[in-house]
Amino acid sequence: MKTRIMLCISLVVAMLLAVSAVPGFATVISYDLNLVYDGVTPSGSAPWLRATFDDLGTPGTVTLKLENLLKSQTEFVAGANVKKPSRSQEGWAFNFNPSKNLSDLDIAFQSGSNAADVVVWGSDKFKAGGGGLFDILFAWDQKPGSRFKGGQDAIYTITGISDLVAGDFNFLSTVKNAQAFHTAAHVQGIKCGSGWIADTPSNTPVPEPATLLLVGTGLLGAGLWRRVRR
Asked: The Ice-binding protein C-terminal domain covers which part of the protein (predicted)?
């Protein structure tokens, strides 16, 4: 019996050492745009768009995956003003941690089927209908071949700040007589008009396997301790 207990304790210690060797606990924040707050509702069921931020457990680099889940190929996200990108107001917008320097960000396209024609950022620079002011905007050209349509995606690498994490994009838009959201987008090509959509603003970061392993190890250790006492 004593040998078995010592073996179990050794296993727990080994698991704790393995977790401590992990450089950080990854956080994934995923936003489903499933709410229409202005204009016409897109066809099909929600969510119509999805954005996922992932810091991979290593501060300083965050990946962002943009997914278009629109059901109709006549509906799309666009909004770019290629000649004057600073004036782009429509597209897909996000917020950033106000305590960090937004101008230091570097956002680079990594892979995917349709990269945005314009990516611009500035504090409270972009107005998303009645959804408040946002800091980062991805916009596609209005030309039919450039529009961001259902089934397409775009993956970006975001760097430039040494302690950048996914949680830095978990902030609500600045509002003045408007609603606040983590992200908002303008969907065009809808029958009878267009619509502004956003996430339901109650998102909570999702723990990744390293965090779950730590929790599981703690529960296992507590169980073994009760067994030793008995």
From this structure: 205-227
How many angstroms separate the CA atoms of 58 and 62, rounded? 8
CATH value at residue 113: 2.60.40
- What separation, in Å, do the N-terminal and C-terminal C-alpha atoms of the chain show? 12
Indicate if 13 and 37 belong to the same structural domain.
Answer: no
Structure tokens at 90: 């429509």
Please tell me whether residues 127 and 185 are part of one structural domain.
yes
* Same domain as 70, residue 10: no
Provide CB contacts within 8 A for 119, sequence distance 6+.
Answer: 107, 109, 136, 137, 138, 139, 156
Residues 118 and 180 reside in one and the same domain = yes
Q: Which domain holds residue 214?
A: 1-23+208-230
Gap between the Cα atoms of 57 and 27, Å rounded: 7
CB 183 within 8 A of CB 197: no
Can you give the pLDDT of all 230 residues of the chain as single tens digits?
555 555 444 544 444 444 343 445 679 999 999 999 999 999 999 999 999 999 998 899 999 999 999 999 999 999 877 667 666 778 999 999 999 999 999 999 999 999 999 999 999 999 998 899 999 999 999 999 999 999 999 999 999 999 999 999 999 999 987 789 999 999 999 998 999 999 998 755 565 554 444 444 444 444 544 554 54
